[in-house]
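hey so i finally got around to running the thing on that chain from the lab meeting. sorry it took forever, my laptop kept dying and i had to restart like 3 times. anyway pasting the input first so we r on the same page abt which one it is
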Amino acid sequence: MIFYLTFGELESWLTLKPLGQLLAETAVDVEVRPMLGSLGNVVSQAKPGELDPLAEYKARRAAARRQARRRELDRQCDSLGIAAGQAERKIDPTMLSLGLLWMNRGAGDWADYCYRAFQRTFRDTADVESQSVVAALISAAGVPTKGFGGFVDSERCDLIDGTDVLLEQGLLSAPAFVLEGEIFHGREHLPLIRWMLEGSGGTPPV
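ok and heres what got predicted. didnt touch it at all, straight out
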């Protein structure tokens, strides 16, 4: 199974605990890969100079989505023990993502690294965009950092360019899971993934 996450969004942080429980109770091997961000929904736009007949409808839907996002953000903050201001922090996740790739290369404890990265990002609101800070996170997770600087220089462009490849594959947002050739967006699919891993017996979870 492949698990995609992004360090700039709470939803990926919230996925770590239930995913960890799933991995502890099944024999599945997981490969963890970073995404630089979620692409969101693509909506049609009226051409320049044309009136949009759905403008009023889209405005109502946008307001409803904003309210839903606010309620979901409040629930996420309560779950993680952080304030809304902390949760709304925006970062460039490139360096943290390169750190995760380095962790994978060193066969390190990716979950430990990810927890440290998310806590520093949202709970501590500290620097997570510099190479030295990410190197310290890697070291704290038990993986040597010799050669990390050269790895950053050689892999940064491939990581950024890889966003287009993910889009072509149908990976639009994180967290996402790829299992048996199927893509599942969102941690709400973990019960279904568990059912699949356990042999798909009986009625699948709704």
